[in-house]
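Bug #2210: token dump truncated for 3-methyl-2-oxobutanoate hydroxymethyltransferase?
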Amino acid sequence: MYVQNAEAPPRKPVTVPSLHVMKAAGQRIVMLTAYDTSFAWHLENAGVDIALVGDSLGMVVQGHSSTLPVTLDQMVYHTSAVARGLSATMLVADLPFMADRDTAHAMAAAARLVGEAGAAMVKIEGAAPHVLEIIDVLTARAIPVCAHLGLTPQSVHKFGGFRIQGRDEAAADRILAEALAVQAAGAALLVLEGVPTGLGERVTGALQIPVIGIGAGPHCDGQVLVIHDMLGITPGKRPKFSKDFLAGNGSVSAAIGAYAADVRSGAFPGPEHCFS
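Reproduced locally. Full output below:
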């Protein structure tokens, strides 16, 4: 479970209902990844709404070329570490590759991430029939689920690389239909990654649940970035949809604060971070 961060400014815990209130009020939601207690502490103190322990740790922490090698034990370890740095910020954890191979495995993995590691929500990629069943089963057992559509990193081999999705009309219509399907299955939140700005706007307008964009344009209900990208410390080329907030801000805390402020004001993402 969460522990109180004594130095964080007091604020009400972010919950599933409060995220839905934020969408209804047009208040943009701030999400960032975190993989350890120290970065979690910075997110908490900056007032970030959601900390995501993503399987992106396989790339930015472990040095792999994809998220696929990340194990459930590793996700539990990193989620537990992040939980110890949070109090009000909501904690979301990824179901790693093949944890969703069937309902039983998904339930067991989610139980560990929530019950053992302290997550408040689990994230699952795609909208295949078995994924929709898993979303339904988990939400029926009071485990909130965040769906993930568009450029889903666990499908890297199917996509032939990390490629922007939904650029033609048929693909865009399919992603919109998938978004409606995961919502109907019970998802409380949707991460939409790597799609054209127009599609991000369509999906956000069509759904009642909040849509968090990453390379999905400025019209989403909120934004998420991998913290290493946001700080400009990822080795190699930074993704087009990211921005180095550490440059000119002088410290990690100031960079995270600037990111949160720009998301809430709508200054980020700008046109240079979007896809057509």
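Output looks complete on our side. The first strand starts at residue 29 and ends at 33. Marking as cannot-reproduce; reopen if the truncation happens again.
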